Model the fold of this input.
Amino acid sequence: MKILGNIMSLFLSEIYKMMDIVVERRNRREPCNALPAGWMRLATRRERGASIGKLDVCYYNPAGRKIRSKAELTKELGETWDLTNFDFMSGKIVTSLIKGSRRKDSKSSNKNAKAAPVISDLNSLVPPIRQTASIFKQPVTVMKTHKGDVRKNLKTDKEKPRQLFWEKRLNNISPYHEGEESDFTMSLPEIVKDLNCTGGSESNAAVLASLSTALHLDKKPVVGQKSSDRLKENPVAYLNPDQPIVGELEVTDDLIRQQEKRVLQARNKLAAAMKTLIHASG
DNA sequence: AAGCTCGGCAT
DNA sequence: ATGCCGAGCTT
Done:
């Protein structure tokens, strides 16, 4: 009986070895690009025992110390790295963890669709969700003061909660191109002004993140924040979450004409480049 | 002694 | 069902 069990587990471990070739390479530390540089991920398949086949995942910090749980990882990185949407098992940032995302699963989507692009890159464009979720169940008492008022109030209060200054959470993320030095900097136009209340020397990155996200995702016009001294004292009350964290933008006709000129120049440059390209190839 | 692996408790 | 960690086992 015992011999049969041994043969069985050997047989199973062989199957899992074969599966690992397709699914995931075993016993190999691999860099994890959802974590800071130098962090490695290791997945190990259990080969014997009652829990045979189970995948154990651990991480190694740049110093080589082993991290075995998300709790432990948070203890080490929580201050410096946003792990809200980090999935410990897969080592990737998972869109399904982001509140409000309703992505179709791969089975029901188009058969011809290519594999999803690196999800962690996409997520740098998604404004992070509110981080005040409590692990404890919070009791709620509904007080009915006026007859018939409750339903009406629920409807008007349905606005989604938002996090102010979520841009600060993108401070550790910077764009880079493979094989190039990652010293990306971008100067903003004169009319874009920091609100001067987000604090810190890295606020320019936050402003840029905020502005580019607004331009990329929102359909509303980007006009900036109404200038107010009270904003610095109480951003919760005076910050407009629909707008990027820059001062009120004053776009003059002159600026528009300047920009038109630059676009025209760029188009001419592109046309010339294409012309020489066609000439050279054809 | 350090690292690996699996059991088993907690959630 | 699954995350987490203790402890026995291996090197």
